[in-house]
Amino acid sequence: MKGRILTKALLEAFRAHLILEERSDATVEKYCRDVAAFADYLDGNAVTKELAIAYKNKLNADGYKVRSINSMLASVNSLFAFLGWHDLKVKTIKIQQQIFCPEEKELTKAEYMRLVNTAKAKHNERLCLILQTICGTGIRVSELQFITVETAKRGEATVSCKGKTRSVFIVRELQKKLLRYTAEQGIESGCIFITRGGKSISRTNVWRGMKALCVEADVNPNKVFPHNLRHLFARVFYGIEKDIAKLADILGHSSINTTRIYIISTGTEHRRRMEKMRLII
Question: Do residues 142 and 222 share a domain?
Fold first, then answer.
């Protein structure tokens, strides 16, 4: 029980462990950032269960959202498992499953179309096409690198993310737009969405580009970010197919519980459905 100090060497060993587990770069950085914050909190003191619980309570007192706290605790618990300190693992905070999402966080189809049209009006063809590619396929912004000239010609891309590989279909209309864009830009092979230096466009670049459209498109900036396009794809697909298992496969989710988060309706829709029940006499 004594002498369990989180040294720099242990944290580096944990990073190496995550890399050998073939975690994505983003996951490795996230886990390491979380455990580094925990180490800073310890300030050189030996790790105890009491201190681990106190850290959880501090995160809560500091105003972190429950999901964020649980995410950080998952990183710390992963470190404990790696070090064999299983008795130090801290329980996460239980969250009741949401039955509807706040409207101020949901990007509607009409708002999405205004963003696309605004990008087009600004002659930002690349951003205009990025929005349609993410929303039209359901891919993550980090998966844009797999949309290449070759996959556009095939109408299907093989996407690898988080240790899983899946096929993503590119509908005919999007396929035409992608090939027309590559011809205009003189992109003969490889990744379509690239910077001037020839590198794959980053998540930050896409995020900034989307935010710059908000005022002119008359869309609340709080709901404008790349991942909301993926959520919109999920809701529209589920509204047509009503097949959550198939949607989970398309999105690359290991658990249907994750997919459920993507398709919850707004409070207005939930209220409308309740009104249709007509159970009040």
Answer: yes
186 domain-assigned? yes
Beta-carbon contacts of residue 90 (< 8 Å; ≥ 6 apart) = 49, 52, 53, 55, 56, 73, 76, 77
**Domains in the chain: how many in total?**
2
Per the structure, the complete domain to which residue 245 belongs is given by: 103-272
- Please give the span between the terminal C-alpha atoms of the chain, in angstroms, as a whole number: 64
pLDDT in 10s for each residue of the chain, 281 residues: 457 999 999 999 999 999 999 888 888 999 999 999 999 999 999 999 999 999 999 999 999 988 899 999 999 999 999 999 999 999 998 876 665 566 667 899 999 999 999 999 999 999 999 999 999 999 999 999 999 999 999 999 999 887 788 999 999 999 999 999 999 999 999 999 998 888 889 989 999 999 999 999 999 999 999 999 999 999 999 888 888 898 988 898 888 888 887 777 655 666 677 778 777 77
| CATH number of the domain within which 112 lies | 1.10.443.10
* Residue count of the chain: 281
Scored b (16 or more CB within 10 A) or e, 97-126 reads eeeebeeeebbeeebbebbbebbeeeebeb
CA–CA separation, 252 vs 255, rounded Å? 9
- What count of other Cβ atoms lies within 10 Å of the Cβ of residue 135? 24
